[in-house]
Amino acid sequence: MIYTVTFNPSLDYVVTLPKLEVGAINRTKGEEIFPGGKGINVSWVLRNLGIPTRILGFKAGFTGEEIQRLVEARGMDCDLLPVEQGFSRINVKVRAQEETAVNGQGPKIGEADLARLLKQLEALQPGDMLVLSGSGPSGCAPTLYGQIAHLMQQRDIPCVVDATGKLLENALDAGPFLVKPNKEELEDLLGRSLPTEAALIDGARELRQRGARNVLISLGGDGALLVDDLDVVHRHTAPEGHMVNTVGAGDSMVAGFLAGYLKNRDYAEALHWGICAGSATAFSMHLAEKEAIEKLVKGN
């Protein structure tokens, strides 16, 4: 079972406009509502690929209940912990000339709430995997992901960390199975520009020296680069297609990578599935379905 944690899930209200005019009344030509949050996105694509998964995290208010309802309607196992005050955020995604997003804050998560989540994580067993994705709860300590990753390390449960800044940095010495910064996030973490592929490889190896087992660098339309736990470099370009949506593409890459890895424990295959899953989402209006991912995997 692959467990994902989404500390700050959302309802994503996605609207399509012919053109966004600031300061004017804009009328949509299409609108949809999806459950959002990076961990939920990872579980959504894992579920599409037939991988058992369970969503953990927090919910608050009527929006939190709707997030859980929409996730369960999709057939996913979801166990979000209720928070008494506030409400789960609503994120507005505008598709017009360019993509624009307005993201809400979400409820504040207290120490008692975090303690309940840590209690939940005690249910994980050897053979399970944990994915920590996105930002932590409002006001969380920058050591939060590191704390959880260390607990998983002590129990020999592989942990994936897809986060930025201190949340990622403080988790490296816990030996996460996989970290997935994009180019800009890696540059921010290391405090220097990485203008060439050789520089990116050096940056990935630096994260490995600091504890990460596998470092997957997403490069958008240029594909991705992986330095695996044997220090072997894998490079994969992105398939051709028409990009219509960037939301969730990185999360889809994580899900595809894990699904591909679980097939044969082969990193080249894992990277191929990761690239294809991320691209299939970028070519779709929402998170990619199994058929779209497999079509790219087969090269059709």
Structure description:
The chain is α/β, with parallel strands linked by helices and 300 residues long. Helix content is 37%, strand content 23%. The protein contains ten helices and 13 strands. A nine-stranded mixed beta sheet has the order 5-4-1-8-9-10-11-12-13, sandwiched between helices. It has a four-stranded mixed beta sheet with strand order 3-2-6-7. Helix 5 links the parallel strand 9 and strand 10. Helix 1 packs across helix 8 and helix 9 packs across helix 10. The radius of gyration is 19 Å and the shape is globular. The chain starts with a strand and ends with a helix.
Write the layout of secondary structure elements.
Elements: E1 2-6, E2 10-16, E3 30-36, H1 38-48, E4 53-60, H2 61-73, E5 77-83, E6 89-95, E7 99-102, H3 111-121, E8 129-133, H4 144-154, E9 159-162, H5 165-169, E10 178-179, H6 183-190, H7 197-209, E11 214-218, E12 224-227, E13 233-236, H8 249-264, H9 267-282, H10 290-297
Parallel strand pairs: 1-4, 1-8, 2-6, 4-5, 8-9, 9-10, 10-11
Antiparallel strand pairs: 2-3, 6-7, 11-12, 12-13
Helix pairs in contact: 1-8, 8-9, 9-10
Question: Which percent band covers the strand fraction?
Answer: 15-25%
- How would you characterize the largest beta sheet? 9 strands, mixed
Q: SS-based structural class?
A: alpha/beta
Q: If you average the pLDDT, what whole number results? A: 93
The separation of the N and C termini measures 30 Å
Annotation, overall tally of beta strands:
13
SS field, number of helical segments = 10
What share of residues is helical?
25-40%
Radius of gyration over C-alpha positions, nearest whole angstrom: 19 Å
| Oligomer classification | single chain
Lateral arrangement of strands in the main beta sheet: 5-4-1-8-9-10-11-12-13
* pLDDT < 50 runs, ≥5 residues: none
Shape call: globular
Task: Write down the secondary-structure element order.
Answer: EEEHEHEEEHEHEHEHHEEEHHH
